[in-house]
Amino acid sequence: MATKTSIHPSVNELYQRLAEDQLSNCFDRFDPQEKIRCNYCELGVSCQLCSNGPCRINEKVGAILGVCGINADGMAMRYMLLRNVMGTSTYTYHAYEAYKTLKMTALGNTPFTITDKDKLYQMAKDLELNTEGKPEDVAVRLSDFLIWELYRDYDEPGKMIEVYAPLKRKEVWRKLGIYPAGPLHELKDAAASCLTNVDGDYVSLATKGLRLGLSCIYGAQIGLELVQDILFGTGMPHEMDVDLGIFDADYVNIVFNGHEPFVGVALILAAKEAVNQDKAKAAGAKGLRIYGSIESGQEVVQRFQKDEVFRGLTGNWLTIEPMLATGAVDVLAMDMNCSPPNLGPLAEKYGATLVSVSRLVRFPGIHHFLDYKPSEVREIAQKIIDIAVDSFKNKRHGKITPKIPANIQKAITGFTPEAILKALGGSINPLIEVIKAGKIKGAVGLVNCTTLKNGPQDYVTVNLAKELIKRDILILSGGCGNHALEVAGLCNLDAISLAGTGLSEVCRSLNIPPVLSFGTCTDTGRISLVVTALANALNVDTADLPVAVTAPMYMEQKATIDALFALAYGLYTHVAPDPPVMGAPNLVKLLTRDLPSITGGRIAVGSDPVKVADDILAHINDRRAKLGI
């Protein structure tokens, strides 16, 4: 039995089923790996990039340099940069898919529509594009422009960063030489720098990492989220059901999983057609339902209401295997990112069919490959529904006994910069006033994965959030950590009772929870827009604001590139577990002690929720004092 499972009762209940059925799962796989971990790798002083290696740094045996001559600091930062190349690549992939989908929609080649026309015209105006003609004409121009933004080189600075970055930060970035090109250019340069015998200077590699982080946010993240708003609507707060109790095994159930909402939305549209509901009923089901899992699900719950077809969000990536163990899933449709590669045996045992809807997703047990293309998404959705109906029929002959937990939690989702402004009466000034008055001490962006490294699942995330709101610190959350807070009940109005006196007063007056669900890891960029608005309104640099970032249970490469952005953006950035750089003393000094005087940001570590919250509050109070509030 695993020593680390979950803080969520529904996951623990279904983990027991996985254990009883002797099926491999993330929780059980963690313990044997913990016994054989390499200290060199954990410290970041191990390299396997060329045939001279693996090389390790160990002063006790005189191995102070790798065979090529790289030292501990260069080795650790090079590995960190390479990881961030992967993270930026996935965000950029998503951005391209979003921009292409907008164009195909404008040309009439998808089942989608241009929903937020006001945002379309405003974005085109902000970027100084021609806004004449029909919305579809403007959408084509915007999509072509944003695709070109991905490719911009250093001779032609990107327009997105000029429009959406904080006024005072842009000059800081220019002086430091980290004002970025488009993400495809930065990816090229960063990846090439990680080649053996190219760049062994940790400062140079860190500089490239900061530039990569900025290009990721402004070249990919902000654009893709704004485009998805244009396509599917800009989120506004509404109530949604979350957790594994949302399933009903008497229905044909399709779960879409990953980070992109396109197939999920197409499935919802197709499932609402009477002909598909009739197919499900003809198979013996009560009907057909669609559910979201992890980030793809979060993208949709931010924008769509719960109804008889779309039922809500299951949870984060560590919930996927327990979700299959409900026996209620007929199809798991997986797009780019965060589908564990050993789902095949679980799908077979519990009667689910695995379908890849991304050319990136491939692993044993997937029997259907319906790779997403905007012009084919209507047909892809229909094929998935047909597969799900067949899957339902095949397993409803006494083969699978459903086991669905009773747990259903209410969460208020759909917070955006626009939603916050609406709640404040159209101006950021009321938020500034309650911060000045000390009712809200400051704000923290919690943008996070989930991991078992400092687990159980979601332990640090949930408990740190409780400590922060207790200290009158407002949380804007995104990513798998956001799902953790939703499932734990921190994103509904009942959570106001857990907040400090000042924050609870503000939350009651605005009818909002103390944790605002901002969406996915991709919404790091959207969260930054709120901070940018605060900085511009106060005419100060972002580094001077009483705000911070935390990733208390980060897991993978998309989280680390978000952290590099936060450092370039000038923010106190807490990460846990410890990143694999601790064996590189000069690099650690740069990130924790020297960087504040360079970019204003710095890294903090630690997994004790109380101490981390105290340290964040101390930073926020320091910034308040410097602002004279």
Concise structural overview:
The protein has 629 residues and is an alpha/beta fold. It has a six-stranded parallel sheet, with helices on both faces. A six-stranded parallel sheet has the order 13-12-11-14-15-16, with helices on both faces.
Per DSSP, the total helix count is 25
What is the topology, as strand order, of the major beta sheet? 6-5-4-7-8-9
Mean pLDDT: 97
| Major sheet size, sense and barrel closure | 6 strands, parallel
Q: Unreliable stretches, pLDDT < 50, 5 or more residues?
A: none
Helix fraction? Answer: 40-55%
Number of strands: 16
Euclidean distance between termini CA atoms: 52 Å
Question: Based on CA inertia axes, which overall geometry fits?
Answer: globular
Keywords: 4Fe-4S, Iron, Iron-sulfur, Metal-binding, Nickel, Oxidoreductase
Enzyme class: oxidoreductase
Protein name: Carbon monoxide dehydrogenase
GO molecular function: anaerobic carbon-monoxide dehydrogenase activity
List the helices and strands and how they pair.
Elements: H1 9-20, H2 26-35, H3 39-43, E1 46-47, E2 55-56, H4 72-106, H5 117-126, H6 135-151, H7 159-164, H8 167-176, H9 183-193, H10 202-232, E3 238-242, E4 252-258, H11 262-271, H12 274-282, E5 288-293, H13 294-301, E6 310-313, H14 320-324, E7 331-334, H15 344-350, E8 353-356, E9 368-369, H16 377-395, E10 409-413, H17 417-423, H18 429-436, E11 442-448, H19 459-470, E12 473-479, H20 480-487, H21 501-510, E13 515-519, H22 524-538, E14 547-551, H23 557-569, E15 572-575, H24 585-594, E16 602-605, H25 609-627
Parallel strand pairs: 4-5, 4-7, 5-6, 7-8, 8-9, 11-12, 11-14, 12-13, 14-15, 15-16
Antiparallel strand pairs: 1-2, 3-10
Helix pairs in contact: 4-6, 4-9, 4-10, 4-23, 4-24, 5-6, 5-10, 6-10, 9-10, 10-23, 11-16, 19-25
